[in-house]
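Dear support,

I submitted the protein below through the web form. The confirmation email said the job was done, but the results page showed an empty box. After a refresh the structure appeared. I'm attaching both so you can tell me whether what I see now is the final result or a partial one.
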Amino acid sequence: MAISLRLSRGGAKKRPYYKIIVADARAPRDGKYLEQIGTYNPLLAKEDPARVKLNEDRARYWLGVGGQPTDRVARLLDKAGIKERAATNNPKKAEPGKKAKDRVEEKAEKAREAEEAAKAAAEAPAEEAPAEEANEATPNSDAGDAAAETVGESAQENAEG
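What the results page shows now:
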């Protein structure tokens, strides 16, 4: 029989309270257990002595007969000084996942495309500006010619009249 030292959840919804128990590894989380060796209340402050209550003698006994603590219970036992736990090192912990990396690449690509479009738009009006000035000059000269014709016609009418 494989023995496990683990947490059994109690308490209300969003108000967890755990028993530190010794149970058969195949038993359900909140099911039948061999012995309760302590309690853990995660809602209390980390410095509060009532956060973790543990019967050290019984914990040492169950570890001695082959009990395997879960990761969380191993942390609690390490803090209590009952069993050393080697610190784990996860160098990829802060690295974003694959989908997040893909999103960043897409965003960078869109920004690059927008920048290229802005450059193209900035260069195009600079080339079109002299053409626009020439076009603007022509309508003004046409308007000036039309005005001159009107003045000429009115002068002829005055002379005749």
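Response: this is the final, complete result; the empty box was a page-load delay. The chain is about 50% helix and 20% strand.
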